[in-house]
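Posting here for the record, re: fe (iii) ion.
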Amino acid sequence: MIKILIFSLLATSSIAAVSAISNDSVTVYSSRKEHLIKPLFDAFTKDTGIKVNYLTGKGGALIERLKLEGKNTKADMFMTVDAGNLWYTGSQGLFQAVQTQVLKNNIPNHLRDPEGLWTGLSVRARTLVYNTERVSPRDLSTYADLALPQWEGRLCLRTSKKIYTKSLVASLIYHHGEGKAGNIISGWVNNLAATPNAKDSHVMNAILSGQCDVGLVNTYYYGRLVEKKPNLPLKLFWANQDTTGVHVNISGAGVTKYAKNPKAAIRLLEWLSSAKAQAIYGALNKEYPANQSVAPDSVVSAWGSFKQDEMNLSQAGILQATAVKLMQKKGYR
Ligand code: FE
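Prediction output follows.
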């Protein structure tokens, strides 16, 4: 079903809108919510004089819209979350390749598409979260170890249908091969305390209520929760620090295949990767900057630093179908 979308034009009159085509404006379709992008777009306009028109909506609906609009699309850029979604958008021929020195300097390789179809702009870690009253961090180590019998009836996970789960499982397949990844998933399913949860926030609530002791969560959901309730017996644990590193994912963007103003879109993409924009972008959603020269904001850095998995995130897309099949086969719902 196509959702009703609100087209927010910054231009104040239709005359202004008509005269503002060409290099003076860029149009972005975004599955990131308005409060996360507007401060950035305002700052970009202030810096460059280029106006940003944007349309926000659900990622899947915006991808369908881009397909339907084809060459007639107004979108110069598409922003969304999760490398799996960005990869899918690229695989549908909706992005064009952009490889610039600025992007290469600002954003590490593993957070960018090898062909330049999309670029990571913020990083979220998907790691272990545990009840500090029931679990010692000494008992925690890797994603794989959550399959051990000691966690039987103590594990909560998000549903396999969520793209975040698919991307994480893709990384297990990438590092361990399909056979061992399958064993890990079987172990997880055996250890579940309850049917997989619809949301990361539900996983944390289940851990707090005593239904389970440990789970997996994207760091910004943890950030949102502890911001409201700082004294909860809930902590993050950085997974795989002696091995492959914490599974990270991105929010990111690409220049659309049929951009009317690709120059301004590239300028916006480069600007978003800059130190100035990255400091704003990460902090707005308690994420980590993708640009490694920028320090995370104080709330996020208080959780400690960690080694991140440097698997190129295009693998989250390439291995997505295999991940889905494997989870089905192992009964991960
Ligand atoms: Fe999310």
